[in-house]
Amino acid sequence: MRLYLINPSNPLVSIVKVKESRWNHYRVWKPLSLMVLAGLTRPSWEITIVDENLSVPDYPAMPRPDLVGITAFTSQANRAYEVAAQFRNMGVPVVMGGIHATMCQDEVMERVDSVVTGEAEGIWPQVLEDARHGDLKRRYDGGFAEINDVPLARHDLLASGYAFGAIQTTRGCPLNCSFCSVTAFNGARYRQRPITDVVREFQSIREKRVLVVDDNLIGTRPEHIARAKDMFRAMAQANLRKEWVAQSTINFADDEELLVLAAKAGCRGVFIGFESLSPEGLQEIGKKFNLLKGRDFRASVRRIQRHNILVVGSFIIGLDIDEPGIGKRIAEVARQYGVDNINVLFLTPLPGTRLWDQMKSQDRIVLDTFPQDWKYYTLTFPAAWYKHLSLDSIIEEMISCERDFYSMPHILRRVLGNLWHRRQPLISLVGNLSYRSNLKLNGKAYADFKRYWGNRHNCIKQT
Ligand code: B12
Ligand code: SF4
C-alpha cells in the first residue's frame, strides 16, 4: 500500500517567492507532523512525504498512491483543498488532519473523503486499517494523545534541505491566551514525553540545528521545570552535539540552574512572547502570566543572554489599546529589553480561539470569504477591524516597527554587542539580516494585499 503525506504550500509563499528570498522561513523549519504520522504507520505502507515548500511535484506523474494524508495550518487550507481535489479526481481517497481540519471540520469535510480531528496517535492506525479495507469513515477524532504513545518521528523520510530539524518534547499549555489555538487544540494539561524517547529521537535527527516545537518548553509549574532540568541533564549526558532553539514563557529566565543546564544541553535561542507593551494589553489578550512577579523584562532577557542564548521577542500589533505610534513604540521597547530579534504579528482571529469568538460576535472579522481568505491568516496581514487603526495605518505601524528595529545602525549595534559578549555574533548577524531582507518583500506583499481588498477595508469601523 502506498501512502503520500503532503504538507501544502501557502499560495502567497509560493516556491517562486521562496526563491526571491534566500532567508525565507518556510524552508528553514522542517515540518514535524507528517514525520510523526509516518512514525505511527506500519512498515507495510510505503510512505512518501512531500513538503511543497521545497518543491511542488507533478503528482499525476508520480506512482498512484492508495491513500493521501494532508496536513494544514489554516493558512495552508486553500492549497490543501487544491491538492485534495487533484487526487480525488484521480480516484485516490484523501484524509486531512491537523489544526485546520480540527477547527473547521465542516468546511474540510466537504472537500476530502475523511477528516481526522485532534492528535493522531490514538486513531491513525485505525484510519489506515479502514483505508486498507476500503472502509474509510467520514470523521475520526484522536482527542488528546496519551503522551507515552507519541512515536519517534521518521526523520529519515524527509530529504535534507532545511536549516533546522524539528522535535517535540511536550504538548499542551495551560495559559489559554485569547489569540492562540494551542490550549483549544492540545489542551490545558501540560504533557511531557518520556526523556529517553526525547534523547533517542534527537539522536536520529540529521540536522545539526533543531527547532524544539513545544509551545512552552519548560512549562509553568515547579514540577514541569524539574522535569525540564532532568531532560536537559540527559541531553547533555548523551552528548548530542546539537544546537537548538525553542519557545518559552519568560519564566525561563527565573532559574539559574535551568539556564545553565539548557545551555549545556545545546540551547542557543528562545522565542519569547512579550505580546504587548502594557499591562492593559496583556489583560486584553489574557496573558496575565507576563504580569506576575512585577517582572523586569530587561533583566530577564539579560539573564538568559548571559548563558549564550539569543532571545527573539514576539509582539502583537492591533490590540484594542493599540493606537497610532504603536509600531515605533514596540521597536523602542524591544531595544530596551535588549532582545536580539523581534517577530511582530498582526492580531489575527484564528478559528477555534477565544479571539475568534469575540471578534465574530462583534462582526469584526473582515477577511471572511472562506476558504479563499484563509491564505491571509499568516498573521502577517490584518484580517480584522482594529479599534484605533485603519488598514493603511496598521500596515504603516508594522512597516515602521520593522524598519526601525532592523535599521542598519541598530543591527550593527546589536551585532557588535553580541561580538563583545562573544554571544553568537554570526548567528545574530544572519538572523537580523534575514529579517531585514524580508522587509522589501513584505512591502510588496502589503501593496498586493491592499490592491486585492481595495476600499473594503480602508476606514476605521465606527462601533
Ligand atoms: C512549529 C510551528 C511552526 C513552524 C512550522 C514548521 C512546519 N512546517 O510544520 C513555523 C515556524 C514555520 C510555523 C509557521 C507558522 N505558524 Co506555526 N506553529 C508551530 C507549532 C509551535 C508546532 C507545530 C508542530 O510541529 N507540532 C507538532 C506536531 C507533531 O503536531 P501537529 O502539527 O499538531 O500534528 C499532530 C496533529 O495535528 C495531527 N495531524 C497533523 N497533520 C495531520 C494530517 C493527517 C492526515 C492526520 C491524520 C493527522 C494530522 O497528528 C499529529 C500528531 O498528533 C504550532 C503550535 C502547535 N501546538 O500546534 C504553531 C501553530 C501551528 N502555528 C500557527 C501559525 C498561526 C503559524 C503561522 C501562520 C504564523 C506564524 N506563527 O508564523 C505560520 C504559517 C506557516 C505556514 N506553513 O503557512 C498556529 C496555527 C493556527 C491555525 N489555525 O492554523 C499554531 C497552532 C500556533 C498558535 N499560536 O495558534 N509554525
Ligand atoms: S501564546 Fe503561548 S503561553 Fe499563550 S496559550 Fe499559546 S502557547 Fe500558551
Set out the fold topology.
Blueprint: E1 2-7, H1 15-20, H2 33-39, E2 46-51, E3 67-71, H3 77-89, E4 94-97, H4 99-103, H5 105-109, E5 114-117, H6 124-132, E6 139-141, E7 165-167, E8 170-171, H7 182-186, E9 191-192, H8 195-203, E10 209-212, H9 222-237, E11 243-248, H10 256-265, E12 267-275, H11 279-285, H12 297-305, E13 310-317, H13 326-337, E14 341-346, H14 354-361, H15 391-405, H16 408-420, H17 425-453
Parallel strand pairs: 1-2, 1-3, 3-4, 4-5, 5-6, 7-10, 10-11, 11-12, 12-13, 13-14
Antiparallel strand pairs: 8-9
Helix pairs in contact: 8-9, 9-10, 13-15, 15-17, 16-17
Bound molecules: cobalamin (B12) and iron/sulfur cluster.
Description of the structure:
- It is a single chain.
- The protein contains 17 helices and 14 strands.
- The C terminus is likely disordered.
- Helix content is 38%, strand content 15%.
- The protein is an alpha/beta fold and 463 residues long.
- The chain has a six-stranded parallel beta sheet, with helices on both faces.
- The structure holds cobalamin and iron/sulfur cluster.
- Cobalamin binds next to α2, β3, β4, α4 and α7.
